[in-house]
Amino acid sequence: MVSFLEPSTTDRHSLLEDAQGIVVGTLLMALSVQFLQGGGLITGQIAGLSLTIAYAGGFAFGLVFFLLNLPFYAVALLRMGWAFTLKTFAAVGLMTAWTFFLPQVMQFADLHVGAAAILAGVTSGAGLIVLFRHGATLGGVGIVAVWLQDTRGIKAGWVQLGFDLCVFGLAWSLFDGRMVVYSLIGAAVTNVMVATNHRRDRYIAR
After folding, report:
1. pLDDT, tens only, 167-201
2. What residues form the membrane-spanning segments (predicted)?
């Protein structure tokens, strides 16, 4: 008997389908970063927390980001398996490549901060949904969020939004308040999209 909560073998994505999903998902996420940078905004998740800690303590962002991600990769390997972990590594690497490439071919000369927040939120939300549906994340809290949704039924979007609220709460004392508010709006758009569209009872495959 086939469960409606788990995909049958024939419903699972092929390697080619997963590859195109990871390419599209990471491209959308990199585009989201372009919108954030164009509007002078910050992001949530581990990247946002790393930026806040690096700014407050005078540390290198890359080092903080790497160290904070290590426990989450351990969770991915132990709880989600090798396939999920390897796809996530691939997604992080491809996302990094896109963020170097896109600024060479597109720039925003005049972008309203409100538009930047909404567009960043929409593209990020769409990108995460694509990655989640192909069994990958961009590391960090996304790993725990997917695991909790798969095992406890707690929606990934709400997990991420809760974490983002904590990150922006810390950022409030370090960055311009207006920028933090708009950044939070973008994060809220992203996580509401994930919470309402990435549902275990409708669609999930690895």
Report:
1. 888 888 778 888 889 988 988 898 888 878 866 55
2. 21-40, 46-68, 80-101, 113-132, 153-173, 179-196
